Amino acid sequence: MEFEQAWLNYTKKGSCDMVDQLTYICVKAQNSGQDALLKSSVAELQRAFSGFFGRQLALCRSSEADKWDSKTEHGIYLALLEGMQPESYHVYEENGEITIEASDSRGILYGVFELIRQVQTDRARKGMKIFKAPAMPLRMLNHWDNMDGSIERGYSGNSFFFQNDRILVNERTVTYARLTASVGINAVVINNVNVKDAATWLITERYLDKVRELSDTFAAYGIKLYLSLNYAAPIELGELENADPLSEEVRNWWKKRMALVFDKVPNLGGFLIKADSEGRPGPFTYSRTHADGANMLAEAAAPYGGIIIWRCFVYNCQQDWRDEKTDRARSGYDNFIGLDGKFLDNVILQIKNGPMDFQVREPVHPLFGGLTQTNQMLEVQIAQEYTGQQRHLCYLIPMFQEILKFRTYVQETDDRVEDIVSGKTFGQHNCGMAAVANTGDDANWTGHDMAAANWYGFGRIAFEPELSAEEIAKEWIRLTYGDDKQVEEALLFLLMHAWEAYEKYTAPLGIGWMVNPAYHYGPSVDGYEYSRWGTYHRADHEGIGVDRSHEGTGYACLYREPNASIYDDKERCPDALLLFFHHIPYTWKLKSGKTVIQHIYDTHFEGVAIVDDMVDRFMKLEGKLPEKPYLRMLKRFLHQKEHAREWRDQINTYFYRKSGIPDEKGRKIYGGVR
Ligand code: GCV
After folding, report:
1. How many domains, in total, are found in the chain?
2. Which terminus of the chain, N or C, has fewer Cβ atoms within 10 Å?
3. What is the pTM of this model?
């Protein structure tokens, strides 16, 4: 399949004050010839400068630097030196020379991509001085790719890692690694957390040579490869009768398995595990805890520096909808809070941003701020499972930023989610942020061309959470489509209004879930209402919402103060989350002064109006954007325009019929109540 270069599109105009004198790249590091990362760094600079300026930069080792005439020629220096924080870099200009300094070659590579970004955005100026260090130690993508080539919740074609139970390593893999590394992502899980069939065999001789090849390809771009693991592998590989984490036989089995895997793939980062969740096996079968399961694996992986990332997405997916006391939102917290402090140091708990499942609006997961002695990672999803499936535009970086800035009150300062997952709050080094990936083998990688902004943006905020969503969006536009002001303005407007629009025309006020079951696309207000998944809105003719206050399921009380009291109180709870926390009459007045029902009608009309505006603005870019992406996007925007109406009309009609309360503005809502 053909593929494009996305934001590493070096054909666009860039500028650099010093470019006319720059003729060479000089590497100041021992054994630089053997360092794959330095080689990638040099190659990337050469590619970029030849793309931008048609200028071939020659490569020299430090000893040869003086062969260039220093009066007329200058170079870019890549220098490894002691004493800087891992992965950090300096990029600066002095006397016409550009230097990129770091203590490790990953830092050099990130510095190179920084310089390229500066050139692409016209900021590579005389006297520039940039110092950057990543906020989060682990910045990871989780691919949910299956070995048959399908992708669970994939919206941009098939897997480019797997096909017909084989691992693929090719040109596309290299470009993927370049794109991923260019935004500072340093870890990738290649296979679905639901590990079944052939994927269980990834840790066997059948695949390890190929896993090694892939891991080496990634390593050249500073990316550690991780695998998702089947907790029941000892049984499913036909070697043991059980997978009890406290059985000596099972523990030894894993020790031997890890020895083999790390021997074959020494650069492997570790494993991601979904256990006792949605039908996946886990320690519960043996009446053991998640800590027992995770620690068994961690002990086996520890001698090789392996990390075990254990997911907290654990809940009862066989719930009876009649049962109003059981609350899926509580389950992650209830399952893990009692285990705080019981995990080994090479275990990280991976926690979804909210307690449910990547809805357009959820409160922050209460395990953030709840756990104090356990390594933690934040899991977000850039695959837009519930946010338009990469057919609707939904730029998620503003949402991620809200989550990262959320104060947990676990201590007086440095208590935001961002502080916890950066390791600031508890001094941890095994922590970070993971995103469920949105890529596939479509030519543009992400189905919707503009969904690439989520991939780009995720990496950028995991590295530098202080960047604003707008700055990131601007960068992405500039890098991908060049410096046309009209293009920049229009695409920026689209990106910055997309989440707001999507939230407005879909499920209201934090309640979530009003989607078609199983494939999760499109409106179906009662789709999940009488199901076993624990995802209800409880609407009747008087009101809607789930009572999670102290009088209801008690979920609101899982937060630290003052969050708990705020969420628990209908009057103080933020409007955006009101129906998540409370069952509310349609006639209830929101802080905006509107009733709940009027808010529902208004936001649904507004959401559609924003999309109409977005599409109008987009269509003015005809002839300004390259034809192929323009036409691809146009198709999706026209679909979004129509589909947003479907959402609006189904939601509004549903609530009109339930409540019998007409729209005070008299707009068209589809009948039923006379
Ligand atoms: C990979 C949701 C998704 C599943 C996904 C699961 C998870 O339930 O719909 O496809 O499984 O989350 O995060 O494990």
Report:
1. 3
2. C
3. 0.98
